[in-house]
């Protein structure tokens, strides 16, 4: 069932009389024949450079005032570019949690619109397309089978659309304050560039993703282009090249990727000794773990959730540094980033048993159906068992709390994302590290 209708008038000549006629006919059909009462309707128009936005919108209002049932469900969105108009409409859809959209547009605009949609939306949304014409019966507003694919746009046209989207996103202001990076005093900054991100300083606007979300998936509403823009801003602030940035491909297991060798399909650890290459691990409750060997000048990053912790992903990353780069395990420094703490994190009793076997102190209220789990303590114990020196591990056990960067993500909604706290449409922060040139 259609939840919103998008009428694309962006490419039409600026002839208000014709636009008003088209609008009136389409809105009459929507008003009378929609399969749901008064769907949300967005009219997308081009704003001329230097024109007054309010006066232009007012000129479209007379034919809209007759549609009382739509009331505040109808909005004219004018912008200088199609990217800006469509992104504004996406914000409106996200505010109302709408996902099923019918797009009414000139046939020649369809392939262009699909490129915009592919870049600005994710698989969470469903789109149906209808040719822009005067509707004469109610059938035109029922959901129909998607039309067959037209010819592909020339690559230069696709490149222009991508550039238009990129320029618009770069122009957007940062949200929730300045971009903030947490750094560890354990990792020497004359050799390594590193940090852990927080949620501030990006452009993601959905509350659970706002604002510096650094991961996109088909199940979330933040598209890859927004994540890419957030990463660009992070790279500028931190001083690394986003074009040589590599993030682990999460599998919640213990595979490790060796930079420069064949990349596995999925892996939760990554290591390198290449200068200028930035590697990273995400976290939104799971631990982003960074590894640095200042002697052999090698580094690593790992994503350690409860499954990866039990499977030993952190020691697997250490072992990869030892075997690939000749590192001495006693030289490797390990920093655990922001992650869900034992104050908040629970697992079913059967899973908690595995942590109890590592150390009973990793589990609180063990006899309960869902005991509290300390995946950080478990990680430290496994690292120390593998030969990492206790003083070379920085986590939430540091005595000087001013040096603590292993905050509980669930306890600090102003600073960090949390899957545990925020649900399915959650944001992601990262830990990143590189060897300086």
Automatic annotation (TrEMBL):
One GO location term (cellular component): nucleus
Record flagged with keyword Metal-binding: yes
E.C. code: 2.4.2.1, 2.4.2.28, 3.5.4.4
Gene Ontology biological process: inflammatory response; innate immune response; regulation of defense response
Gene Ontology MF, one: hydrolase activity
Keyword field contains ATP-binding: no
Record PANTHER family: PURINE NUCLEOSIDE PHOSPHORYLASE LACC1, UNCHARACTERIZED PROTEIN YFIH
Family label: Belongs to the purine nucleoside phosphorylase YfiH/LACC1 family.
UniProt protein name: Purine nucleoside phosphorylase LACC1
Species this chain originates from: Herpetotheres cachinnans (Laughing falcon)
């Amino acid at each position: 069932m259609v939840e919103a209708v998008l009428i694309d008038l962006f490419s039409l000549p600026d002839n208000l009389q014709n636009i008003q006629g088209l609008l009136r006919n389409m809105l009459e059909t929507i008003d009378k024949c929609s399969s749901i009462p008064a769907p949300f309707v967005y009219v997308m128009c081009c704003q001329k450079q230097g024109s007054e936005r309010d006066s232009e919108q007012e000129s479209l209002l007379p034919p809209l005032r007759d549609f009382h049932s739509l009331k505040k469900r109808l909005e004219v969105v004018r912008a200088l570019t199609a990217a800006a108009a469509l992104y504004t409409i996406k914000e409106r859809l996200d505010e109302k949690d709408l996902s099923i959209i019918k797009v009414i547009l000139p046939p020649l605009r369809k392939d262009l619109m699909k490129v915009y949609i592919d870049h600005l939306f994710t698989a969470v949304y469903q789109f149906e397309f209808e040719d822009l014409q005067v509707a004469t019966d109610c059938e035109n507003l029922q959901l129909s089978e998607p039309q067959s694919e037209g010819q592909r746009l020339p690559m230069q046209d696709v490149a222009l659309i991508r550039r238009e989207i990129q320029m618009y996103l770069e122009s957007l202001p940062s949200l929730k304050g300045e971009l903030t990076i947490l750094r560890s005093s354990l990792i020497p900054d004359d050799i390594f560039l590193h940090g852990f991100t927080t949620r501030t300083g990006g452009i993601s606007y959905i509350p659970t993703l706002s604002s510096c979300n650094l991961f996109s998936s088909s199940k979330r509403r933040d598209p890859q282009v927004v994540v890419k823009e957030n990463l660009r801003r992070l790279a500028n602030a931190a001083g690394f090249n986003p074009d040589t940035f590599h993030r682990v491909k999460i599998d919640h297991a213990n595979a490790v990727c060796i930079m420069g060798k064949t990349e596995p399909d999925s892996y939760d650890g990554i290591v390198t000794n290449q200068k200028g290459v930035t590697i990273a691990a995400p976290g939104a409750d799971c631990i982003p773990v960074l590894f640095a060997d200042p002697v052999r000048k090698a580094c690593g990053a790992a994503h350690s959730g409860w499954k990866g912790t039990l499977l030993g992903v952190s020691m697997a990353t250490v072992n990869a540094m030892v075997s690939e780069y000749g590192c001495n395990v006693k030289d490797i420094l390990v920093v655990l980033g922001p992650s869900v703490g034992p104050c908040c994190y629970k697992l079913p009793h059967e899973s908690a048993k595995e942590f109890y076997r590592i150390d009973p102190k990793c589990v609180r209220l063990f006899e309960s159906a869902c005991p509290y789990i300390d995946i950080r303590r478990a990680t430290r114990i496994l690292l120390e068992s593998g030969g990492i020196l206790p003083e070379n591990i920085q986590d939430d056990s540091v005595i000087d709390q001013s040096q603590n960067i292993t905050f509980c993500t669930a306890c600090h909604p102003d600073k960090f994302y949390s899957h545990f706290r925020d649900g399915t449409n959650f944001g992601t922060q990262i830990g990143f590290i590189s060897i300086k040139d």
